[in-house]
Request: fold
Amino acid sequence: MHHRFWLFRLLLLWLLTQTACAGFPSSTAPTTLSERVVLRLWHAWPATEARVLQTLVDTFNQAHPEWQVVLQTRPAVSLPSDLVTAVGEGGGPHLVIIQSHTLGVLVENGVLRSLDDMLAGSELNSLLPTAVGAASVSVDGRPMLFGVPITFDTLALYYNRANILQPPSSIEELLLTARALTDRERDPPVWGLAYNLALDRTIGYLYAFGGRVFDEQGTVVLGSSGREGAERWLTWLSQLYRDELLLATLDGVLVDRALQAREAIMTIDWAHAQAEYRAIWNDQLGVTLLPVVSTEDRVPQPYVQADVIAINARLNNPAEQAAAQAFIRFMIDVDSQRMLLMAGRQPTQLALSLNDTDLADSVQLAAARAFRLQAQRGLPMPTDRITNELVWNTLADMQLSAVRGLITPEQAVTLADEILRSRITPP
Reply:
Protein backbone atom coordinates (compact mmCIF):
# COMPACT_ATOMS: atom_id res chain seq x y z
CA MET A 1 0.00 0.00 0.00
CA HIS A 2 2.85 2.34 0.93
CA HIS A 3 4.62 1.41 -2.33
CA ARG A 4 1.56 2.33 -4.41
CA PHE A 5 1.31 5.69 -2.61
CA TRP A 6 4.88 6.67 -3.55
CA LEU A 7 4.35 5.39 -7.10
CA PHE A 8 1.31 7.67 -7.43
CA ARG A 9 3.32 10.67 -6.13
CA LEU A 10 6.11 10.01 -8.65
CA LEU A 11 3.59 9.77 -11.50
CA LEU A 12 1.93 13.04 -10.43
CA LEU A 13 5.31 14.78 -10.24
CA TRP A 14 6.17 13.57 -13.77
CA LEU A 15 2.87 14.88 -15.17
CA LEU A 16 3.40 18.31 -13.59
CA THR A 17 6.92 18.47 -15.03
CA GLN A 18 5.67 17.64 -18.54
CA THR A 19 2.94 20.26 -18.29
CA ALA A 20 5.42 22.94 -17.27
CA CYS A 21 7.78 22.03 -20.12
CA ALA A 22 4.96 22.36 -22.67
CA GLY A 23 4.52 26.08 -21.98
CA PHE A 24 4.74 29.12 -24.30
CA PRO A 25 7.58 30.17 -26.60
CA SER A 26 10.55 31.65 -24.77
CA SER A 27 10.06 34.98 -26.59
CA THR A 28 6.73 35.64 -24.86
CA ALA A 29 5.72 35.88 -21.25
CA PRO A 30 3.89 32.79 -19.96
CA THR A 31 0.11 33.07 -20.05
CA THR A 32 -2.05 30.57 -18.24
CA LEU A 33 -5.20 29.23 -19.84
CA SER A 34 -7.31 30.90 -17.17
CA GLU A 35 -5.82 34.31 -18.09
CA ARG A 36 -6.29 33.99 -21.85
CA VAL A 37 -9.23 35.84 -23.39
CA VAL A 38 -10.98 33.68 -25.98
CA LEU A 39 -13.25 35.30 -28.59
CA ARG A 40 -15.53 33.32 -30.87
CA LEU A 41 -15.92 34.78 -34.37
CA TRP A 42 -18.78 33.75 -36.64
CA HIS A 43 -18.49 34.13 -40.40
CA ALA A 44 -19.99 32.73 -43.61
CA TRP A 45 -17.12 33.14 -46.06
CA PRO A 46 -16.68 30.42 -48.71
CA ALA A 47 -13.88 27.89 -48.32
CA THR A 48 -11.17 29.66 -50.35
CA GLU A 49 -11.51 32.99 -48.55
CA ALA A 50 -12.11 31.22 -45.23
CA ARG A 51 -8.65 29.66 -45.43
CA VAL A 52 -7.10 33.12 -45.77
CA LEU A 53 -9.24 34.34 -42.87
CA GLN A 54 -7.98 31.43 -40.78
CA THR A 55 -4.39 32.34 -41.65
CA LEU A 56 -4.99 35.89 -40.50
CA VAL A 57 -6.56 34.68 -37.26
CA ASP A 58 -3.61 32.34 -36.65
CA THR A 59 -1.20 35.23 -37.18
CA PHE A 60 -3.10 37.37 -34.70
CA ASN A 61 -3.23 34.58 -32.13
CA GLN A 62 0.50 33.88 -32.41
CA ALA A 63 1.34 37.55 -31.98
CA HIS A 64 -0.98 37.88 -28.97
CA PRO A 65 -0.89 34.75 -26.80
CA GLU A 66 -2.99 36.53 -24.19
CA TRP A 67 -5.87 36.60 -26.71
CA GLN A 68 -7.32 33.82 -28.81
CA VAL A 69 -9.81 34.21 -31.67
CA VAL A 70 -11.64 31.05 -32.66
CA LEU A 71 -13.38 30.91 -36.06
CA GLN A 72 -16.79 29.28 -36.41
CA THR A 73 -18.46 28.94 -39.83
CA ARG A 74 -22.20 29.48 -40.17
CA PRO A 75 -24.52 29.19 -43.21
CA ALA A 76 -24.64 32.50 -45.08
CA VAL A 77 -28.42 32.42 -45.47
CA SER A 78 -29.16 31.91 -41.77
CA LEU A 79 -26.27 33.84 -40.21
CA PRO A 80 -28.29 36.99 -39.32
CA SER A 81 -31.23 35.04 -37.87
CA ASP A 82 -28.89 32.65 -36.04
CA LEU A 83 -27.19 35.66 -34.49
CA VAL A 84 -30.49 37.20 -33.36
CA THR A 85 -31.56 33.91 -31.77
CA ALA A 86 -28.25 33.22 -30.05
CA VAL A 87 -27.82 36.73 -28.61
CA GLY A 88 -31.48 36.81 -27.57
CA GLU A 89 -30.86 33.66 -25.53
CA GLY A 90 -27.90 35.29 -23.81
CA GLY A 91 -25.18 33.70 -25.94
CA GLY A 92 -23.82 34.01 -29.47
CA PRO A 93 -20.34 34.86 -30.68
CA HIS A 94 -18.24 37.74 -29.41
CA LEU A 95 -17.56 38.91 -32.99
CA VAL A 96 -19.25 38.36 -36.34
CA ILE A 97 -18.31 39.12 -39.95
CA ILE A 98 -21.51 39.98 -41.76
CA GLN A 99 -22.74 41.85 -44.83
CA SER A 100 -23.42 45.49 -44.11
CA HIS A 101 -26.98 45.63 -45.46
CA THR A 102 -28.13 43.33 -42.62
CA LEU A 103 -26.94 45.69 -39.88
CA GLY A 104 -30.20 47.63 -39.57
CA VAL A 105 -32.30 44.60 -38.68
CA LEU A 106 -29.66 43.38 -36.23
CA VAL A 107 -29.53 46.78 -34.52
CA GLU A 108 -33.34 46.82 -34.30
CA ASN A 109 -33.16 43.50 -32.48
CA GLY A 110 -30.58 44.79 -30.02
CA VAL A 111 -27.97 42.32 -31.18
CA LEU A 112 -25.00 44.60 -31.92
CA ARG A 113 -22.91 47.05 -29.94
CA SER A 114 -22.13 50.53 -31.30
CA LEU A 115 -18.52 50.88 -32.39
CA ASP A 116 -18.34 54.68 -32.31
CA ASP A 117 -15.84 54.44 -29.46
CA MET A 118 -13.79 51.59 -30.96
CA LEU A 119 -11.63 53.41 -33.52
CA ALA A 120 -10.11 56.86 -33.66
CA GLY A 121 -11.25 59.30 -36.32
CA SER A 122 -7.94 58.97 -38.14
CA GLU A 123 -8.39 55.20 -38.31
CA LEU A 124 -11.87 55.50 -39.81
CA ASN A 125 -10.68 58.17 -42.23
CA SER A 126 -8.12 55.71 -43.59
CA LEU A 127 -10.93 53.44 -44.79
CA LEU A 128 -13.01 53.75 -47.97
CA PRO A 129 -15.71 56.34 -47.07
CA THR A 130 -18.57 54.59 -48.88
CA ALA A 131 -17.72 51.34 -47.08
CA VAL A 132 -17.77 53.15 -43.74
CA GLY A 133 -21.11 54.67 -44.75
CA ALA A 134 -22.44 51.21 -45.53
CA ALA A 135 -21.48 50.13 -41.99
CA SER A 136 -23.50 52.91 -40.34
CA VAL A 137 -27.06 52.69 -39.05
CA SER A 138 -29.30 55.67 -38.28
CA VAL A 139 -30.43 55.60 -34.64
CA ASP A 140 -32.82 58.38 -33.60
CA GLY A 141 -31.80 60.33 -36.68
CA ARG A 142 -28.05 60.06 -36.00
CA PRO A 143 -25.72 57.78 -37.98
CA MET A 144 -23.85 55.36 -35.71
CA LEU A 145 -21.14 52.88 -36.64
CA PHE A 146 -22.09 49.26 -35.96
CA GLY A 147 -19.47 47.51 -38.06
CA VAL A 148 -15.92 48.10 -39.24
CA PRO A 149 -15.64 47.36 -42.99
CA ILE A 150 -12.77 45.02 -43.86
CA THR A 151 -13.71 44.40 -47.52
CA PHE A 152 -16.16 45.94 -49.99
CA ASP A 153 -18.12 44.97 -53.08
CA THR A 154 -19.43 47.08 -55.95
CA LEU A 155 -20.12 46.95 -59.69
CA ALA A 156 -17.85 47.45 -62.69
CA LEU A 157 -17.66 46.64 -66.40
CA TYR A 158 -15.97 43.30 -67.19
CA TYR A 159 -14.66 42.70 -70.71
CA ASN A 160 -12.46 40.38 -72.77
CA ARG A 161 -9.28 42.27 -73.70
CA ALA A 162 -8.70 39.88 -76.61
CA ASN A 163 -11.65 41.55 -78.34
CA ILE A 164 -11.56 45.06 -76.89
CA LEU A 165 -8.35 47.07 -76.77
CA GLN A 166 -9.89 50.28 -75.41
CA PRO A 167 -12.92 49.78 -73.12
CA PRO A 168 -15.90 52.11 -73.67
CA SER A 169 -16.12 55.08 -71.30
CA SER A 170 -19.73 56.08 -72.06
CA ILE A 171 -22.91 54.10 -72.48
CA GLU A 172 -23.13 55.38 -76.06
CA GLU A 173 -19.71 53.87 -76.81
CA LEU A 174 -20.65 50.73 -74.89
CA LEU A 175 -23.72 50.09 -77.02
CA LEU A 176 -22.00 50.91 -80.33
CA THR A 177 -19.12 48.55 -79.50
CA ALA A 178 -21.44 45.83 -78.23
CA ARG A 179 -23.63 45.88 -81.32
CA ALA A 180 -20.59 45.82 -83.61
CA LEU A 181 -19.22 42.73 -81.85
CA THR A 182 -22.51 40.82 -81.83
CA ASP A 183 -22.83 38.04 -84.39
CA ARG A 184 -26.23 36.39 -84.32
CA GLU A 185 -25.50 34.37 -87.45
CA ARG A 186 -23.04 32.17 -85.61
CA ASP A 187 -24.19 29.02 -83.89
CA PRO A 188 -24.26 29.67 -81.01
CA PRO A 189 -24.44 33.46 -81.42
CA VAL A 190 -21.80 35.81 -80.00
CA TRP A 191 -23.00 38.76 -77.94
CA GLY A 192 -21.06 41.99 -77.57
CA LEU A 193 -22.86 42.67 -74.26
CA ALA A 194 -24.61 40.27 -71.90
CA TYR A 195 -26.33 42.35 -69.23
CA ASN A 196 -28.48 41.09 -66.38
CA LEU A 197 -31.03 43.90 -65.94
CA ALA A 198 -31.76 43.04 -62.31
CA LEU A 199 -32.22 46.08 -60.06
CA ASP A 200 -28.97 45.61 -58.12
CA ARG A 201 -26.96 45.81 -61.39
CA THR A 202 -28.83 48.74 -62.92
CA ILE A 203 -29.94 51.08 -60.12
CA GLY A 204 -26.65 53.00 -60.31
CA TYR A 205 -27.86 54.35 -63.65
CA LEU A 206 -31.07 55.66 -62.08
CA TYR A 207 -28.92 58.37 -60.50
CA ALA A 208 -26.86 58.83 -63.67
CA PHE A 209 -30.05 59.74 -65.56
CA GLY A 210 -30.99 62.23 -62.84
CA GLY A 211 -33.57 60.09 -61.05
CA ARG A 212 -34.05 60.16 -57.29
CA VAL A 213 -36.13 58.25 -54.78
CA PHE A 214 -35.59 60.47 -51.72
CA ASP A 215 -34.27 63.97 -51.16
CA GLU A 216 -31.68 64.98 -48.53
CA GLN A 217 -34.37 65.14 -45.86
CA GLY A 218 -35.59 61.61 -46.59
CA THR A 219 -38.83 62.68 -48.27
CA VAL A 220 -40.08 60.59 -51.20
CA VAL A 221 -39.48 62.52 -54.44
CA LEU A 222 -39.61 59.66 -56.96
CA GLY A 223 -42.79 61.01 -58.57
CA SER A 224 -41.91 64.70 -58.28
CA SER A 225 -38.37 66.07 -58.66
CA GLY A 226 -37.02 62.57 -59.37
CA ARG A 227 -39.65 61.65 -61.95
CA GLU A 228 -38.00 62.82 -65.17
CA GLY A 229 -34.75 60.98 -64.50
CA ALA A 230 -36.52 57.83 -63.32
CA GLU A 231 -38.66 57.71 -66.45
CA ARG A 232 -35.61 58.18 -68.68
CA TRP A 233 -33.83 55.38 -66.82
CA LEU A 234 -36.78 53.01 -67.28
CA THR A 235 -37.07 53.96 -70.95
CA TRP A 236 -33.36 53.25 -71.46
CA LEU A 237 -33.66 49.83 -69.81
CA SER A 238 -36.71 49.03 -71.95
CA GLN A 239 -34.73 49.88 -75.08
CA LEU A 240 -31.87 47.61 -74.01
CA TYR A 241 -34.35 44.83 -73.30
CA ARG A 242 -35.74 45.02 -76.84
CA ASP A 243 -32.45 45.52 -78.66
CA GLU A 244 -31.90 42.41 -80.80
CA LEU A 245 -28.15 43.02 -80.94
CA LEU A 246 -27.79 42.85 -77.14
CA LEU A 247 -28.36 40.07 -74.65
CA ALA A 248 -29.99 42.41 -72.13
CA THR A 249 -32.51 40.44 -70.13
CA LEU A 250 -34.13 39.95 -66.75
CA ASP A 251 -33.16 36.27 -66.93
CA GLY A 252 -29.89 36.10 -65.03
CA VAL A 253 -29.44 32.40 -65.80
CA LEU A 254 -29.46 33.14 -69.52
CA VAL A 255 -26.75 35.79 -69.08
CA ASP A 256 -24.60 33.50 -66.90
CA ARG A 257 -24.91 30.67 -69.40
CA ALA A 258 -23.73 32.85 -72.29
CA LEU A 259 -20.76 34.13 -70.29
CA GLN A 260 -19.73 30.69 -69.05
CA ALA A 261 -19.87 29.38 -72.62
CA ARG A 262 -17.64 32.29 -73.74
CA GLU A 263 -20.42 33.58 -75.99
CA ALA A 264 -20.31 37.15 -74.61
CA ILE A 265 -17.56 39.77 -74.60
CA MET A 266 -18.72 42.32 -72.00
CA THR A 267 -20.92 42.36 -68.90
CA ILE A 268 -21.64 44.39 -65.78
CA ASP A 269 -21.35 42.57 -62.47
CA TRP A 270 -20.22 42.69 -58.84
CA ALA A 271 -16.60 42.56 -57.71
CA HIS A 272 -17.17 39.28 -55.86
CA ALA A 273 -17.70 37.59 -59.25
CA GLN A 274 -14.18 38.44 -60.42
CA ALA A 275 -12.84 34.88 -59.98
CA GLU A 276 -15.56 33.54 -62.28
CA TYR A 277 -14.63 35.94 -65.08
CA ARG A 278 -10.95 35.22 -64.58
CA ALA A 279 -11.73 31.55 -65.17
CA ILE A 280 -13.57 32.49 -68.39
CA TRP A 281 -11.14 35.00 -69.93
CA ASN A 282 -7.93 34.09 -68.06
CA ASP A 283 -5.25 36.80 -68.40
CA GLN A 284 -7.37 38.63 -70.98
CA LEU A 285 -9.77 39.73 -68.25
CA GLY A 286 -10.33 43.48 -68.18
CA VAL A 287 -12.20 45.47 -65.52
CA THR A 288 -13.04 49.15 -65.85
CA LEU A 289 -15.39 51.82 -64.51
CA LEU A 290 -19.05 51.73 -65.42
CA PRO A 291 -19.59 53.82 -68.57
CA VAL A 292 -21.00 57.27 -67.93
CA VAL A 293 -24.12 58.86 -69.40
CA SER A 294 -22.25 61.34 -71.57
CA THR A 295 -25.31 63.33 -72.65
CA GLU A 296 -25.89 64.21 -68.99
CA ASP A 297 -22.24 64.19 -67.97
CA ARG A 298 -23.27 62.04 -65.02
CA VAL A 299 -21.44 59.04 -63.57
CA PRO A 300 -23.41 55.99 -62.44
CA GLN A 301 -23.51 55.51 -58.68
CA PRO A 302 -23.75 51.80 -57.90
CA TYR A 303 -24.22 50.64 -54.35
CA VAL A 304 -21.21 49.74 -52.23
CA GLN A 305 -21.71 46.74 -49.97
CA ALA A 306 -19.21 45.87 -47.21
CA ASP A 307 -18.25 42.87 -45.14
CA VAL A 308 -17.96 44.25 -41.62
CA ILE A 309 -16.76 43.04 -38.24
CA ALA A 310 -19.47 43.66 -35.64
CA ILE A 311 -19.53 43.05 -31.88
CA ASN A 312 -22.11 41.28 -29.73
CA ALA A 313 -24.18 43.78 -27.75
CA ARG A 314 -23.59 41.70 -24.61
CA LEU A 315 -19.82 42.11 -24.81
CA ASN A 316 -19.32 44.19 -21.66
CA ASN A 317 -16.18 42.59 -20.23
CA PRO A 318 -13.32 45.14 -20.53
CA ALA A 319 -10.73 42.44 -21.28
CA GLU A 320 -12.88 41.01 -24.08
CA GLN A 321 -13.55 44.48 -25.46
CA ALA A 322 -9.81 45.19 -25.54
CA ALA A 323 -9.18 41.91 -27.40
CA ALA A 324 -11.98 42.66 -29.89
CA GLN A 325 -10.63 46.16 -30.50
CA ALA A 326 -7.13 44.80 -31.12
CA PHE A 327 -8.43 42.21 -33.59
CA ILE A 328 -10.44 44.80 -35.50
CA ARG A 329 -7.37 47.01 -35.80
CA PHE A 330 -5.36 44.00 -36.96
CA MET A 331 -7.89 43.24 -39.72
CA ILE A 332 -7.70 46.76 -41.18
CA ASP A 333 -3.92 46.87 -40.97
CA VAL A 334 -2.19 47.24 -44.35
CA ASP A 335 -0.56 43.79 -44.20
CA SER A 336 -3.84 42.05 -43.37
CA GLN A 337 -5.64 44.01 -46.07
CA ARG A 338 -2.99 42.97 -48.59
CA MET A 339 -3.67 39.31 -47.75
CA LEU A 340 -7.38 39.84 -48.33
CA LEU A 341 -6.59 41.43 -51.69
CA MET A 342 -4.49 38.42 -52.66
CA ALA A 343 -7.49 36.22 -51.81
CA GLY A 344 -9.66 38.16 -54.26
CA ARG A 345 -11.41 40.41 -51.73
CA GLN A 346 -11.47 44.17 -52.22
CA PRO A 347 -9.66 45.90 -49.32
CA THR A 348 -11.10 48.96 -47.59
CA GLN A 349 -7.76 50.33 -46.31
CA LEU A 350 -6.81 53.32 -48.47
CA ALA A 351 -3.26 53.25 -47.08
CA LEU A 352 -2.85 50.10 -49.17
CA SER A 353 -1.86 52.00 -52.30
CA LEU A 354 -2.47 49.15 -54.79
CA ASN A 355 0.93 49.61 -56.40
CA ASP A 356 2.91 46.93 -58.20
CA THR A 357 4.56 45.71 -54.98
CA ASP A 358 1.20 44.95 -53.36
CA LEU A 359 0.25 42.19 -55.78
CA ALA A 360 2.23 40.26 -58.36
CA ASP A 361 -0.89 39.46 -60.39
CA SER A 362 -1.18 42.49 -62.70
CA VAL A 363 -4.65 41.51 -63.94
CA GLN A 364 -6.08 41.25 -60.44
CA LEU A 365 -4.28 44.41 -59.37
CA ALA A 366 -5.74 46.42 -62.27
CA ALA A 367 -9.18 45.14 -61.35
CA ALA A 368 -8.70 46.20 -57.71
CA ARG A 369 -7.82 49.73 -58.82
CA ALA A 370 -10.96 49.91 -60.96
CA PHE A 371 -13.19 48.60 -58.15
CA ARG A 372 -11.76 51.10 -55.66
CA LEU A 373 -12.26 54.05 -58.00
CA GLN A 374 -15.79 52.91 -58.81
CA ALA A 375 -16.59 52.50 -55.11
CA GLN A 376 -15.38 56.05 -54.44
CA ARG A 377 -18.02 57.21 -56.93
CA GLY A 378 -20.74 54.97 -55.55
CA LEU A 379 -23.32 55.14 -52.77
CA PRO A 380 -23.32 53.22 -49.47
CA MET A 381 -25.80 50.37 -49.64
CA PRO A 382 -28.68 51.18 -47.25
CA THR A 383 -28.87 49.24 -43.99
CA ASP A 384 -32.37 50.02 -42.70
CA ARG A 385 -35.22 47.54 -42.89
CA ILE A 386 -37.61 49.90 -44.71
CA THR A 387 -35.20 50.41 -47.62
CA ASN A 388 -34.12 46.77 -47.83
CA GLU A 389 -37.66 45.48 -47.81
CA LEU A 390 -40.34 47.98 -48.83
CA VAL A 391 -38.34 50.42 -50.99
CA TRP A 392 -36.26 47.79 -52.76
CA ASN A 393 -39.23 45.57 -53.59
CA THR A 394 -41.26 48.57 -54.80
CA LEU A 395 -38.48 49.73 -57.10
CA ALA A 396 -37.95 46.19 -58.39
CA ASP A 397 -41.64 45.89 -59.26
CA MET A 398 -41.54 49.33 -60.93
CA GLN A 399 -38.56 48.35 -63.03
CA LEU A 400 -39.93 44.93 -63.96
CA SER A 401 -43.30 46.28 -65.07
CA ALA A 402 -41.78 49.04 -67.21
CA VAL A 403 -39.03 46.95 -68.81
CA ARG A 404 -41.44 44.20 -69.82
CA GLY A 405 -43.85 46.78 -71.19
CA LEU A 406 -46.70 45.87 -68.84
CA ILE A 407 -47.18 49.59 -68.11
CA THR A 408 -45.46 52.73 -69.33
CA PRO A 409 -42.47 54.20 -67.46
CA GLU A 410 -44.69 57.13 -66.44
CA GLN A 411 -47.33 54.81 -64.99
CA ALA A 412 -44.67 52.71 -63.25
CA VAL A 413 -43.12 55.73 -61.54
CA THR A 414 -46.54 57.07 -60.48
CA LEU A 415 -47.54 53.73 -58.96
CA ALA A 416 -44.24 53.25 -57.10
CA ASP A 417 -44.35 56.82 -55.78
CA GLU A 418 -47.89 56.32 -54.44
CA ILE A 419 -46.88 53.10 -52.68
CA LEU A 420 -43.84 54.66 -51.04
CA ARG A 421 -45.68 57.80 -49.95
CA SER A 422 -48.49 55.74 -48.41
CA ARG A 423 -46.12 53.47 -46.48
CA ILE A 424 -43.31 55.77 -45.42
CA THR A 425 -43.87 58.45 -42.81
CA PRO A 426 -42.01 61.67 -43.70
CA PRO A 427 -39.15 62.37 -41.26
